Amino acid sequence: MTFGLVVIAVSAVCFWSGLATAQVAGATLSGLVTDSSQAAIANATVTTKNLATGEARVVQTNGEGFYSVPNLLPGSYDVSVAAKQFTTTLQKGIVLTVGAQQALNISLKPGKVSEVVEVMSTPPDVQTATSAVSSTVDSRTVRELPLNGRDWTTLATLEPGVLSVPNQATTSFNANKGNRGFGNQLTDSGHRPNENSYRLNGLTINDYSNAAPGGATGLNLGVDSVQEFSVITTGYTAEYGRTSGAVINAITKSGTNKFHGTG
């Protein structure tokens, strides 16, 4: 009986872990690989390399020449595409942000695979693969902008339509703040504060009242661990779910091949 319970518990953990990895945490790079006549190239090898960590992801195009690389960490990437009877194309300097849906279409020229064509000009930073209205608070803004209380969620008010609710309840013992959550209340285009969704590394971190996360002091610490976050106000897809207000989607810092820190 005990062995059966252990098997069920392990299976449940594996199941929910698989669901967790499907959440929106990083960026997605997708597009079409074609030849000079705009015909699709199937089975082309697309390699994305993170310049900060050196990590490379390799995918193949399908029969329509389409590829997709999900859950990429925010940062700069080099993207190379290789196929038989075509020269290899290397697109440099692709910048991806948290939760971005970036499209990158690449056209290959006939030639030897050993020949490499480097493309230095970066494509415009326009997310044509999604209709969501969003903005990104990058790592430099998070690191250098002065914050009252070091609460990174207050930086969401830098985006159009997002405001901090005035006259918020105090944190004293006789206040009713505990009834609606301790976090900083934000409103997006008239939505109630408990209609927003806060996500960290793909996991929902709303508190027990479905309001903003925060401790008894009303602050959400950890600004030094947050790399960047996006604020999606409208048009987001069903993969975010559980909300009708804004989506504040953050990702924590990760290690790189260079020493860095704050102090």
What does this structure look like?
- By secondary structure, this protein is mainly β.
- The protein has 2 domains: 27-119, Immunoglobulin-like, CATH 2.60.40; 133-252, Ferric Hydroxamate Uptake Protein, Chain A, domain 1 (Beta Complex), CATH 2.170.130.10.
- 11% of the residues lie in helices and 32% in strands.
- It is built from 3 helices and 16 strands.
- The protein has a 5-stranded mixed sheet with strand order 3-2-5-6-9, with no helix packed on it. Strands 10-15-16-13-14 form a 5-stranded mixed sheet. Strands 1, 4, 7 and 8 form a 4-stranded mixed sheet that branches.
- The longest helix has 20 residues, at 2-21.
- It is elongated, with a radius of gyration of 22 Å.
- Mean pLDDT is 80; it is low at 9-22.
Q: Which structural traits does this protein have?
A:
Immunoglobulin-like; 3 helices; Ferric Hydroxamate Uptake Protein, Chain A, domain 1; mainly beta; elongated; 5-stranded mixed beta sheet; 263 residues
Structural class: mainly beta
Strand order of the largest sheet: 3-2-5-6-9
Rounded to the nearest angstrom, the distance between the terminal CA atoms is 54 Å
Count of individual domains: 2
Catalogue the unreliable spans: 9-22
Spatial extent as radius of gyration: 22 Å
Please report the first level of CATH classification, the CATH class of the largest domain: Mainly Beta
| Strand element count | 16
Mean pLDDT: 80
Predict the CATH topology of the largest domain. Answer: Ferric Hydroxamate Uptake Protein, Chain A, domain 1
Return the CATH architecture of the largest domain: Beta Complex
Which overall shape is indicated by the principal axes computed on the Cα atoms?
A: elongated
Superfamily (CATH H level) name of the largest domain: TonB-dependent receptor, plug domain
